[in-house]
Amino acid sequence: MNIKNGINVLSLFDGISIAQLALTELNIPINNYFASEVDKNATKVTQYHFPGTIQIGDVRNVDGTTLPSIDLMIFGSPCQDLSSMRKDRKGLDGEKSGLLFEALRILKEVKPKYFILENVGSMSKHDKQTINDLLGVEGVHVNSNLVSSSNRHRIYWSNIEFESPIDRKIILKNIIEDGYVDRRKANAVLTKNIPYTVNGLKRYLNKSIGQIVFIDKDFSNTAKGEKLEIIENMSNDEARKLFRLFTISELEQLQTLPNGYVGDILKKTPAHHAIGNSFTNEVIKHILSYADFN
Predict the structure, then answer these.
(1) Which domains does the chain have, with CATH numbers?
(2) Which residues are known catalytic residues?
(3) C-alpha triplet 152, 37, 61: angle, nearest 5°
């Protein structure tokens, strides 16, 4: 793509700057990249890879009228109040997910050529329709499992017209470093680490949160109910002989990130958090490949 002067990008809730990574991998030159992010660990990853990033702080304090002409505005507003994982979710009325309205304010201020919004696929129909109406486009459902070994259902709103990615048929057992898995795809990349205890394994088995690699092959092939019975009276040390958590490198692969993108910079717990909060790189690349920035 031949873009003479590069593009100006505004990324709200930037996280570990996956939009910047995707643009770089697509060879789309960037003139200015403005990032609004409050998590210091995420910012640390961004500035390590892209030291020219212009950090502009809390989204609530961003004045879009002070920015230059923006070619792309991308934002993945917090999903905690929208996700079905939270029983008492408040939707767009929640404190965190309600930050979407700050992003919409800025969107009106900067009037970018293109915009992309990503959020959780399990939000209520009411909240999805509200966002449809506010943005004037229909949200498109895309599961990251088409381009990765992770089931990660998300909705993308954009004025970039794109087709769904082709299924690359990447399966979980082909990305783990060792051990065994009991499913074709990981069920989620969570922002919180699953406790390395028997109760953690029981939580995984009960809620099908696929962030476990089994060390014991026979145990991995055991039915879920039998797994629960087997570990009922086990000690933590005994349980550790049966399973382990995903490594940071494996989590990076689930989000289609380059090896070491986060793990070379952050320690285990903040790395899990940063990866879990990020976009799936290959999905963002796919959408951006349909944009014409000339």
Answers:
(1) 7-165+280-288 (3.40.50.150), 178-246 (no CATH)
(2) 79
(3) 130
